[in-house]
Automatic annotation (TrEMBL), chain A:
Domain NADH-rubredoxin oxidoreductase C-terminal: 311-378
The species this protein was found in: Litorisediminicola beolgyonensis
NCBIfam families registered for this protein in UniProt: nitri_red_nirB
Protein name: Nitrite reductase large subunit NirB
Cofactor(s) required for function per UniProt: FAD; [4Fe-4S] cluster; siroheme; [2Fe-2S] cluster
Gene field: nirB
Domain FAD/NAD(P)-binding: from-to ranges: 3-293
From TrEMBL, chain B:
Cross-referenced Pfam families: Rieske_2
Annotated protein name in UniProt: Nitrite reductase small subunit NirD
Keyword Nucleotide-binding tagged: no
Keyword Oxidoreductase attributed: yes
Keyword annotations: 2Fe-2S, Iron, Iron-sulfur, Metal-binding, Nitrate assimilation, Oxidoreductase
Residue ranges of domain Rieske in the record: 4-99
Organism expressing this protein natively: Litorisediminicola beolgyonensis
Database matches in CDD domains: Rieske_NirD_small_Bacillus (cd03530)
Length: 808, 109
């Protein structure tokens, strides 16, 4: 009998022993640093959550190995491998080998944060770690760094035992290696819903402790999360130390060929410690394949390991997700996306050359195995593409006629779940004269809340009224959704949707992450409705608002500093002149809004020119923004012999109050000091004309593609009231208008009477002003100053310049 | 193929892009999700708009000047517009973005 030594008794080694012992011919010695046999490591999470016991997950205990004639050296570390003598040196003595298999697995990666060596900072790898978490006890606090598979299982398991858990994740969404954003959003929503706190895009700075024990995690932004236990689950590293010391070829893992043989022909390696064809392994399926191939190699048979598509499931009860194949990277990919907001279901298939190459599913994963099969078998799906996303049970069936389906519903079938309205009630309302969606909504409340049954109600209208029903011609936002802007705004408020992922999922977007039409609109709606909760997304903004400058036809930009109320000074003019010279600005122009425009600045120069202008006290004039542009003024009582009020002063006050706010479209104001109207206030979005007895506030003017005079909103006696009405009006516009509707278009839709009535209620005016001020507390800051230096400034430069290298 | 390291993956925000200068002209490098990058010519074939400044959605970019939309994988203009932008081999390894060395020009390749 020849000697076979195996180092490590993990899942790959356990499977190997099964294959080899059954074939016979070997005297086997098995080393394991853990003082026990083989257990199903991936089932530690159910043990943690209490759904299984350790005994239930043991796969190969000492008894099993004994029965197979294996000499077990459990709890004994291997010190070194002597390849020349072909001997393995254990802590308790040498064992010679003819063939050696290294299955040392992996070690968890510990981020070297200050304090990582404190007591109470653990990884999540073995039974000991699991027991530490199980011993924590109800009411204690735990922080998990890492929102991947293991981290979330640790968090959910501890939470199930009554621990107060916070997950801190560096990336923008959970499980980013297995899930796309939409599925990551649903997962987070589920976890947060059950009481686990989740912080994404969050960096840790240091671990705090007292008397050598962990007490809290401090984040990069300074926040502290108190904790009794800190679990790091940020990844694994192949355990290659033993192999490397023995002089075997290693990279990220121990290099092996297709036969699992290392650079030494008598040494094989399998499992998480290896690197095969540039890949390392963390899931169990390929490990079992490797064990099989290694067994064949040892028996002198032919076998070759080839990596195959694996799938992932999260072992957290109630979180149903499935991910397989390659959905993040691929060539000529196409997506099929299905969302069912009411059930919290998201499915996405990634296709390439008529084959499924990746699948991500959340909420309904019953077809996961079938899709996984299509991926593995590279099945041509062109014949079933239209119904592919509905899964195997739908293949081969006849296409449904939605009208027939609605007509066939019984009268007591519920149509609107939110308001509990059944089909009979809606049909009754329609027959009673409610001939439009709005009328049905008004009389029955159906589709008035979440709106997902709107399609059904329209079909009922069509079925009941026949040709008499004309579908509303309302335009959807874009091809990504069937909802109108107004619907999206209403639903964002009604359903309290506070992220773009939430909008895409809950409102059933048909694309992965929107398009250039809907993304800026949704970004605005979210920041207008939820200024505190939502974080502005620069990637959803048109270039001008992302770069805080207007792009010109040659790709250069224009820079317009703010001049409050059109007033400037010699110092400011000097700074502008200096900047114009320093940055070779080809054109300097005075704008219609009484500002100075520097045209033709190179994108790379923007942070530098801003820094120069900032130094002279000049801030962004937002001449590029769907936001407050300018407040144009005349000189008023300061100099003019006709002036009735301090129009310049009011203009400056208005500009100081409103600057920096984002609005559905650009907003321009003017204040004229008398009815001669030198500031042209009567063609602005808001125009104030001063008269002897006070201030006439007009709104809804236009002087662009349409030319329109303002309509009187209110006449007030004091400057304070003029300010209050203007701010309240702007906030009402921010809260209600469709993206890219100027105020005059919005007023035409809702009616000036409604605007006036709403603003006439003092409480509502006060609420609007308070809401505007809350938003300004976050958004009223100079975007130039924030981007003029350091890290932020570098983003305006090319990522790299290869012209120098090419010249060599 | 040989590859050139042009920067860290985090240098480009998700659904964002950066410009890369080369002797043959500017290239736009896009990051469409956590770990996927694409590289194409930076200039739109329509009026030369800088594509690195466009809105990135799905696997596409919209030119900031006149809203032409291009598939980043094939370089083909989408919808009614006709045209194509050059695409370049680019990949992510260990958190770094690597571009295929031929972008340096004939001499260096």
């Amino acid at each position: 009998m020849k000697n076979l030594v195996i180092i490590g008794a993990g899942m790959a080694a356990g499977r190997l022993v099964e294959h080899v012992a059954d074939a016979g011919g070997w005297s086997i010695t098995l080393f394991n640093a853990e003082p026990r046999g083989t257990y199903n490591r991936i089932m530690l999470s159910p043990v943690l959550s209490g759904e299984k016991t350790y005994e239930e997950i043991v796969t190969h205990d000492a008894g099993f190995y004994e029965a197979k004639g294996v000499t077990c050296r459990f709890g004994e570390r291997v010190l070194r491998i002597d390849r020349e003598m072909k001997v393995v040196e254990g802590e308790n003595g040498h064992v010679p080998y003819d063939k050696l298999v290294i299955a040392t697995g992996s070690t968890p990666f510990i981020i070297p944060l200050p304090g990582h060596d404190l007591d109470g900072v653990i990884a999540y790898r073995d039974l000991e770690d699991t027991q530490r978490m199980m011993a924590l006890g109800e009411g204690k606090k735990a922080v998990v760094i890492g929102g991947g598979l293991l981290g979330l299982e640790a968090a959910a398991g501890m939470h199930a035992r009554g621990v107060d858990v916070t997950v801190v994740h560096l990336m923008g969404h959970l499980m980013e290696r297995q899930l796309d954003e939409a599925a990551g959003y649903l997962l987070r929503k589920d976890l947060v819903g059950r009481g686990i706190k989740v912080l994404v895009s969050t960096n840790s700075r240091e671990i705090l402790g007292e008397d050598g024990r962990v007490t809290a995690l401090r984040l990069e932004d300074g926040r502290e999360l108190p904790c009794d236990l800190l679990v790091m689950a940020v990844g694994i590293r192949p355990a290659t130390a033993l192999a490397a010391e023995a002089g075997l070829a290693t990279g990220r893992g121990i290099h092996v060929d297709d036969q699992m043989v290392s650079s030494d022909p008598d040494i094989l390696a399998i499992g998480e410690c290896i690197e095969h064809d540039g890949q390392i392994f963390g899931l169990v399926a390929p490990l079992y394949d490797q064990a099989k191939v290694a067994a064949a190699t040892l028996a002198g048979a032919e076998a070759a390991f080839a990596n195959r598509e694996t799938s992932t499931k999260l072992k957290v009860t109630g979180c149903d997700l499935f991910s397989a194949g390659d959905f993040a990277e691929g060539d000529d990919r196409e997506d099929i996306v299905f969302r069912d907001p009411a059930r919290g279901v998201y499915k996405r298939l990634v296709l390439q050359d008529n084959r499924v190459i990746g699948a991500v599913m959340y909420g309904d994963t019953v077809d996961g195995a079938w899709f996984h099969g299509l991926i593995k078998d590279r099945t041509d799906v062109s014949g079933m593409r239209d119904t592919l996303i509905f899964g195997p049970s739908f293949q081969g069936g006849a296409a449904l006629d939605p009208m027939a389906a609605v007509a066939a519903l019984p009268a007591d079938a519920e149509i609107c779940g939110c308001n509990g309205v059944c089909k009979g009630r809606i049909v009754e309302a329609i027959e009673g004269g409610a001939g439009s969606l709005d009328a049905v909504r008004a009389t029955t409340k159906a589709s008035g809340s979440c709106g997902t049954c709107t399609g059904l109600v329209e079909q009922l209208l069509a079925v009941t009224l026949g040709d008499a029903f004309e579908r509303p011609t309302a335009q959807p936002v874009c091809g990504c959704t069937e909802l109108t802007h107004e619907d999206v705004r209403r639903l964002i408020k009604a359903q309290e949707l506070k992220s773009q992922q939430a909008v895409w999922q809950e409102l059933g977007w048909s694309t992965v992450n929107g398009c250039h039409v809907c993304r800026p609109a949704v970004n605005f709606y979210l920041l207008a409705d939820w200024p505190v909760d939502y974080q502005d997304d620069p990637q959803s903004r048109f270039v001008n608002e992302r770069k805080h400058a207007n792009i010109q036809k040659d790709g250069t930009f224009s820079v317009v500093p703010r001049m409050w109320g059109g007033i400037t000074s010699a110092t400011e003019l000097r700074a502008i002149a200096d900047a114009a010279e320093k940055y070779n600005v080809p054109t300097v122009k005075v704008t219609g809004g009484q500002r100075i425009d520097l045209l033709g600045v190179r994108g790379e120069d923007l942070p530098a020119i801003w820094a120069d202008l900032n130094r002279a006290g000049l801030v962004s004039g937002h001449a590029y923004a769907k936001g407050l542009r300018t407040v144009k003024t005349c000189v008023g009582t300061d100099h003019c012999r006709f002036g009735t009020q301090d129009s310049t002063g009011l203009g400056i006050k208005l500009e100081k109050a409103l600057w920096g706010s984002w609005t559905p479209h650009k907003v321009k104001l003017a204040v004229s000091g008398c009815p001669r109207n030198c500031a042209e206030a009567t063609c602005k979005d808001v125009g104030v004309v001063c008269v002897d007895s006070g201030f006439e506030v007009g709104v809804g003017g236009a002087a662009g593609m349409d030319v329109k005079e303002t309509e009187p909103l209110v006449k007030v006696a004091t400057e304070e009231e003029a300010l209050a009405w203007t701010i309240a009006f702007v906030q009402l516009y921010r809260e209600n208008a469709k993206y890219l509707d100027r105020p005059y278009k919005w007023i035409a839709k809702v009616g000036l009477d409604w605007v006036r009535e709403t603003l006439s209620v003092p409480e509502e005016r006060a609420r609007l002003i308070a809401a505007f001020e809350l938003s300004q507390s976050i958004y009223q800051k100079d975007p130039w100053a924030e981007r003029a230096r350091d890290e932020e400034a570098r983003k305006f430069a090319p990522i790299a310049d290869l012209t120098l290298e090419a010249a060599e | 193929m040989s590859w050139i390291d042009i920067g860290a993956l985090e240098d480009i925000p998700v659904r964002g892009a950066r410009k890369l200068k080369t002797a043959q002209g500017c290239i736009a490098v896009f990051r469409t999700d956590e770990a996927t990058v694409f590289a194409t010519a930076n200039a739109c074939p329509h009026k030369g708009g800088p594509l690195a400044e466009g809105i990135v959605h799905g696997q596409k970019v919209t030119c900031p000047l006149h809203n032409w939309v291009f598939d980043l994988e094939t370089g083909a203009a989408q919808g009614a517009d006709e045209g194509r932008i050059a695409t370049y081999a680019v990949k992510v390894a260990q958190g770094r973005i690597l571009i295929e060395a031929s972008v340096l020009g004939e001499k260096a390749a």
